[in-house]
Design a protein that fits this description.
mainly alpha
Length: 206
């Protein structure tokens, strides 16, 4: 029972860390803009790029990535149990997507997913990142590249024989796809914007 409450306490801490809305904090402090009111109304790096500019987006991306990477790295020091690592990764990801500080709203989870798997299974992640970068660079859609990244991750993990993280990768894929449902609809209609439109900040509506 003591171990159960210790694990529960750890997962709560990880969830809280994952909930910190770095995109919102950077946008408000740096530009006085609330990204929840503009663009896709999301606090993730892509919408921060749209509303505040590239440097704020890069900072948001790195910090959101670290929300997954640092807790997972710490979790590996506590235990190498696939169950505990899976629960830790989900706690970080759910915190980011359904933030305690944003009334249950949050980012789309791609950067945090990258951080999670970078800490525990980097080689499959790198292959998924390569696929993502190729798609984003050639086709231009960040959302499509992001979806390809998470969709291919279970396959690369399976090929690498890292079966302990297969469930985590599948659940992460489902969660990220769920958060991208509007992007998927826009892609199907041919209405999705390309990354080139995110290179400079757009003026916020009055």
């Amino acid at each position: 029972m003591e171990q159960f409450f210790a694990l529960l306490g750890w997962l709560i801490v990880v969830y809280i860390v994952g909930s910190v809305p770095f995109g919102l904090l950077l946008a408000k402090m740096g530009r006085g803009i609330d990204p929840r009111l503009h663009g896709s109304r999301n606090t993730g790096a892509t919408n921060v790029a749209r509303t505040c500019g590239t440097r704020y987006a890069v900072a948001t991306l790195i910090l959101d990535l670290l929300k997954g990477f640092i807790p997972m790295l710490a979790a590996t020091a506590i235990s190498l149990s696939p169950l505990i690592l899976t629960l830790s990764g989900l706690a970080a990801l759910l915190g980011h997507m359904y933030s305690l500080f944003l009334d249950g709203r949050g980012g789309k989870g791609v950067a945090t997913t990258i951080g999670i798997f970078l800490a525990v299974t980097p080689t499959p992640l790198i292959w998924s990142l390569i696929l993502c970068i190729i798609l984003v660079w050639t086709i231009g859609y960040v959302s499509l590249g992001s979806l390809a990244l998470v969709a291919s991750l279970p396959l690369f993990i399976l090929l690498a024989g890292n079966f302990g993280f297969l469930v985590l990768s599948i659940v992460a894929t489902v969660l990220v796809f769920g958060k991208h449902r509007e992007n998927i609809l826009r892609l199907a209609r041919g209405e999705e914007k390309t990354w080139k439109r995110y290179l400079s900040p757009q003026p916020a509506p009055e």
